[in-house]
Every structure is written in structure tokens, then in C-alpha cells.
Automatic annotation (TrEMBL):
This is MerR family transcriptional regulator. The lineage of its organism: Bacteria, Bacillati, Bacillota, Bacilli, Bacillales. The keyword Transcription regulation applies. SUPFAM superfamilies: Putative DNA-binding domain (SSF46955). It holds the Pfam family MerR_1.
Amino acid sequence: MSSYKEKKVISIGIVSELTGLSLRKIRYYEERGLLSPGRTGKGGRKYSFDDVETLMKIAERREEGVQTAEIKKELNKEKTKQKIRDEMIKGQLNAHFRMRK
């Protein structure tokens, strides 16, 4: 089951208001592969709360002068680390509950 933070339900206009980023910048970051919004049946973009947080990180790093290619590497590393943590937790939970049976 996915978290509410992962559900793609926020329009690009609302994301722009929340982040202070222009629609153009948000689309640019998508083109650069820094995030992947969902799509409506008519092709409109839909973002999650996680996407909003990612955009805030991107904006912060860009203000620091970091190039989008480097930010992409950082985001990919972060995703990989999170997947590893999630798998470790699953393994620990499975081991714990199997032993208790």
C-alpha cells in the first residue's frame, strides 16, 4: 500500500504555488529527469507530496550552484539508499515474525 505522500494528486499549478517555482522550471526539471509526475487521462501532470519535497531540494541545490546533472546523481543515490533501507526493514520484520510463530 502506498503512502499518501506518494499519490500523484496535485496539479502543476498548485505545485508551483507551494514551491514558488515557475511552471516552466518545474517542466524543465521533469525534462532533465529529476522527477516523474503522473498523468491524467488528458495528459495533465499530477504530482505527489514527495515530488513537492523533491522540487524543494532541487531548488535549494540549484541556489547553491549545483548543476542538474549532479542533482540527478544525488537523487538517484538517495533513492537507492532508501530502497536498501526498506528491504532491510522488511527482512528484519519477516525474520522477527517468522521466529515468533
